[in-house]
Amino acid sequence: MKAPLDLDQLQTFISIADTGSFTRAAEEVHRTQSAVSMQMRRLEERIGKPLFEKDGRTNKLTEEGDRLLSYARRLIYLNRETLAAFDDQRLEGTIRIGTPDDYADRFLPEIMARFSRSNPRVELTVICEPTPGLVEHIKRGNLDLALVTHNDTRGQSEVVRREPLLWVTSANHATHEQEILPMAFGRPNCIWRRAAVDVLDRQNREYRVLFSSFSATVITAAVLSGLAISVLPECALRPGMRVLGEADGFGTLPDCRIGIMRGQTSQPEIVDALARHIAESLDNISVPVGEETGSFDFAALAFAKMKRTKPSQILPGW
């Protein structure tokens, strides 16, 4: 029987993958560079596969290394969760978190489940508002942490996930073929709205804003009913939506960057723990393919639409 994997080696492996550098990883795990190199040689011997390859001055994961990374993150997280379950000094208190409702639908179940299992004595208070409102709450001290759409002009946030921003319409209507495009957007200060308007203006496409709302539910309803077109990140796609691309006459949009903002808090340990759980959760979340349930791999669709100009694809219901 093979010996179990070494968790210290896996933690170092994750640090190298995240930083792209043995030197920076050595600083993070408080080891010498030679010790880190030795750990990775032993891990490669244990796995029986090469895990890194040189890419200029950085260390790039091989295909086998990329496969190991997801397992390594899960093993390290499970180790932390196990230790927390038996820690008499585990975190206790209340933390206030904010997120837009489109992120809440997709990400909060995983985040809350992971965090609550490890920190059962911490009470989460959650509010759902658009990013501009959450930024103001952070500035006023009303929130300890917020999951926001990253914007370089709005203040600092730590980017923890990137997704393609996509043009969407109803799969059952030809709304996108109208001469004057009816649009459903967030409020005027919405970064996705500004990105979409910039693309439409550059293409000299005629449009009118038919619906404007801070609610993702309203935008989704307008799209699914065939009343309007909108732009949504991959995480907000729903069954019955159709993704539009260059073949349909719609230009490429910038990526959506999802970030964490921290407020002033008297409980930094809890905030740090929750931020770590959010980053780990968002790094692991994907939409599985399951033909038996009629589900669809949104990530594969989004990637294909960014790389190809074939006709639009339909997201079937399940």
| Element-level helix/strand string | HHHEEHEHEHEEEEHEHEEEHHE
Remind me, CATH topology of the largest domain? D-Maltodextrin-Binding Protein, domain 2
Provide the number of structural domains. Answer: 3
CATH homologous superfamily designation of the largest domain: Periplasmic binding protein-like II
Low-confidence stretches: 287-300, 302-318
The total strand number stands at 13
Overall, the morphology is globular
CATH architecture of the largest domain: 3-Layer(aba) Sandwich
Could you describe the 3D structure shown?
There is one protein chain. By secondary structure, the protein is α/β, with parallel strands linked by helices. The protein folds into three domains: 79 residues, Arc Repressor Mutant, subunit A, CATH 1.10.10; 99 residues, D-Maltodextrin-Binding Protein, domain 2 (3-Layer(aba) Sandwich), CATH 3.40.190.10; 114 residues, D-Maltodextrin-Binding Protein, domain 2, CATH 3.40.190. The strands form four sheets. It has a five-stranded mixed sheet, with helices on both faces. A four-stranded antiparallel sheet has the order 10-7-11-13. The longest helix has 23 residues. The radius of gyration is 22 Å and the shape is globular.
Short structural description:
The chain has 318 residues and is an alpha/beta fold.
Search tags:
Arc Repressor Mutant, subunit A; five-stranded mixed β-sheet; 13 strands; 318 residues; alpha/beta; four-stranded antiparallel β-sheet; 3 domains; D-Maltodextrin-Binding Protein, domain 2
